[in-house]
Specification:
Blueprint: H1 9-16, H2 28-31, E1 41-44, E2 54-60, E3 68-70, E4 76-82, E5 85-93, E6 99-108, E7 113-116, E8 121-127, E9 134-140, E10 146-153, E11 156-163
Antiparallel strand pairs: 1-2, 2-9, 3-8, 3-10, 4-7, 4-9, 5-6, 5-8, 10-11
Length: about 170
Amino acid sequence: MRDHKQVDVDNVVSALSSVATWPGCPQSGMLFSAPITPAYRRIPLGVGTARNYEALLILWPPGHATPLHDHDGLWGMEFVLDGVLEVESFQLCPQPPVHLEHDHSLVVGVGDHIAFSQADYAHRCRNLSKTRQALSLHVYGGELNCYRSFTHDDGQWFSEFHRTTRDEATST
């Protein structure tokens, strides 16, 4: 896990809390039109050299769920711009053996958000609709270049490291 400058996540959340109502705010239909059902996509907003934050749009196909994962110790926030997501939050206990404890579950719709500033945070997100795509804006306290996914099997937790993939940057 990385050490980053202290950021007042609450102030950043407050500044972005109404993003879903901003003029020109994208909706999933603006990125892909019917009858195409797109794949899960992570679209970076802006490009350039390493920076202290990363912003991206995530397009969620109907019913898509992420694996249970962490964010490499970064703070983060996720704003729902279109659709409804379920977020299951966990506390990561990294001392061997690694294990996770379920914290809470939330259903977040257009205009709602979640934020986390703890390095021991992990979650799983799911588009609740079986027919509509969803769209969310994610802001992280650094470039999210790797993460761990977690599985629970036979009473034990297992983790696997991954490199983050991104689609081509957009000017949206």
